[in-house]
Amino acid sequence: MRHRHAPTRPLALAVAVALASAALPTMAASAATRTETKARSVTSASAATTLSPTDQAIHDDLTRRSTRTALGPDLAGLVTDAETGQVLWSQTPREHQLPASNTKLVTAVNALSTFGPTHTIKTKVVQGKTHRRLVLVGGGDPSLSRGNLTALAKAVTPGLRARGLRTVRVLVDDSLFPAPTIAYGWKSSYVPTDVRAVRALVVNQHQVSDTSMNAGRVFAKRLVAQGLKVRVVVRHKARANATVLATVHGRSMASMVGTMLRDSDNDYAEALHRLVAIKTGHAPTWGGARNAQRAALTRLGIDLGTATLYDGSGLSRADRLAPLDIVRVLSLAFDGAHPDLASLRHNSLAIAGRTGTLAPKYLRYVTAPTKCAAGLIEGKTGSLRGVIALSGFARGADGKIKLFSFLLNRVPATLTTRRAVDRLATTITGCW
After folding, report:
1. For the residues 364-379, what does the mean pLDDT come to?
2. What is the bridge-based pairing of β-strands 229-235 and 167-173?
3. Which residues fall within 8 angstroms of residue 97, CB to CB, at 6 or more apart?
4. Which one of 187, 220, 273, 356 has the minimum C-beta count within 10 Å?
């Protein structure tokens, strides 16, 4: 998708100003007043702005289609113009909802703005107490592969042979992150089915209880393939200022963020969540990462206010975001003041009917009436028990890009609900 030149006015601010001018009410506390509040929010958004014919059609169709029973009682949504921040449609956009994996949009923006899109993470082998001891030191790289470990093994072997060594010990240092615990709001059953325990070493995202020791054993096998014998693989912290014997770099930050968003990879999300904390001087704990998360957004001009996040993946059932929060985060990628976020506009999100969690195998955008929007929408999906979310951007019938966020709580997480949300996003394109 090609996009118009980014505006000079910060879009996150423009969206906030647009909503303020529309005088949208805060979400009412009770279910009884929720419906009335939604109706008033839609009306006020329309009355406060003059929309183009294309955008007025989006507004009118969304107003009508957002009442579908399949969308449940708690639809909160917002659609804006990506260039101007003008609100095109809204329904309780400040209502805090369980965002599920839409939280990864926050993680993506923080990681890219903190490290830059070309940054890579190092994994290294350092000298242990003796030349027979090789310490594999984790840098927190979620993209570490068997190929990377093969490269490390090939790099250290000549030096060992030159010293006449044929037998070594492999020590594993994953002390960059503390011993893993589950995040507040996670179910214990999430580990390792939905997410692995967060450790600083993991190879090829193996679904094992101790990914660090697994990485050490994979590295040991690569050494054996080079003709060496490995006596033992144990966890051990490397000495300070130990001699570096070999280093490999993982994939670029933009590439990792793309994998995290398109495939909704929880392991990538939690690793990047911790790495942002370390880079910005916070502890790589759940609490430290949470503080770093909010601070990173503040530096970008976004105040989450009373929104709450407890992880980087969105698995926590205590997480709360509003559509306004998510659209403001998305708008940063279309703001010329943040070039490090530009990669989010180019195939980092799942493409409707084409890639990632919106691919045909998930039966998204493959049947009428949403099939016409295939390729026109790039979005981040979200799904937990009782939760369906979809946020991203779409090309409208006027060729302009629209940002959107739809959050649904108290709904069955079924294909029927997902397709109902897909209809809302399809409406933005104007093809239906």
Report:
1. 98
2. parallel
3. 74, 76, 320, 321, 322, 323, 387, 389, 407, 408, 409
4. 187
CB neighbours of residue 158 within 10 Å: 10
Residue matched to tokens 């929007």: 373
Distance between CA 9 and CA 391 in Å, rounded? 22
Q: How many CB atoms lie within 10 A of CB 234?
A: 11
- What pairs with residue 388 in β-bridges? 383, 408
Q: What is the pLDDT of residue 209?
A: 87
Q: What is the rounded average pLDDT of the residues 110-135?
A: 98
Question: Could you give the CA distance from residue 337 to residue 367 in angstroms, rounded to a whole number?
Answer: 39
Model confidence pLDDT, tens digit, residues 228-254: 999 999 999 999 999 999 999 999 999
The alpha carbon dihedral of 419, 195, 410, 75 has a sign of negative
Q: What is the pLDDT of residue 18?
A: 60
Q: Which structure tokens are listed for 255?
A: 């590439």
Other CB atoms within 10 A of residue 240 CB: 5
Collapsing DSSP to helix, strand or coil, 375 comes out as coil
pTM, entire model? 0.90
Average pLDDT, the chain: 91
N-term to C-term CA, the chain = 19
CA angle 218, 219, 221 (to 5 degrees): 65
- C-alpha radius of gyration, the chain, whole number: 24
